[in-house]
Design goal:
It contains eight helices and two strands. The protein is mainly α and about 190 residues long.
């Protein structure tokens, strides 16, 4: 569809991509002054919401970790396993100072990722249910996701030609596939 849109020249809405790698607002740089034009007491007033956000993110990370680490998943923890929460804290600080969106553990995506890495036995008899053997433990998927997200900055010359319906169709397909799995669990 992208090639057809490009060749024929269909006037479809495209992804809006900036021409330069710079902050979206011209009145600020990469780093944000935490106080800015606000009075000094706003720092004190922001402590309570900041504490609540910290608790919320910590709980999200811990709930995701507890669900993923259930005994039935038979996970073996590596030596760098507990660095996850430290990395989340460091990246939240970096994102806050630069005015970037926060990211969290994404409980549903974490569970889906663990389910996709399940190792099951091969069935030899017809109708026999495969037996759960464990989880293929790896961190390559997460690393590649974030590397590709970072590299998307360099692909802007290509991304600006992709019609928005293509993005929406790929997202809708993923959502529909997940809802079909959900409805099959309910039935």
């Amino acid at each position: 569809m992208v090639l057809l849109d490009f060749v024929v020249g269909i006037p479809s809405p495209k992804l809006h991509v900036p021409h330069a790698f710079k902050p979206t607002r011209d009145d600020r740089g990469w780093f944000i002054n935490p106080i800015g034009p606000n009075p000094w007491w706003m720092v004190l007033a922001a402590l309570v919401p900041a504490l609540l956000c910290t608790i919320l993110i910590f709980m999200d990370q811990q709930i995701s970790a507890v669900i993923v680490n259930r005994k039935e998943h038979k996970l073996k923890k590596g030596c760098g396993y507990h660095l996850d929460l430290f990395m989340v804290a460091v990246m939240l600080g970096v994102c806050s100072v630069m005015g970037l969106p926060w990211f969290v553990a994404a409980t549903v995506l974490s569970i889906t990722h663990v389910n996709s890495l399940k190792v099951e036995s091969d069935c030899s008899a017809p109708g026999e249910q495969p037996k759960f053997l464990g989880i293929r433990e790896q961190r390559v998927t997460g690393l590649l996701i974030f590397v590709l997200m970072g590299c998307s900055v360099f692909f802007t010359s290509v991304l600006k030609f992709i019609p928005m319906p293509c993005f929406m169709a790929s997202f809708s397909t993923w959502v529909c596939r997940r809802s079909e799995e959900f409805s099959s669990l309910i039935a």
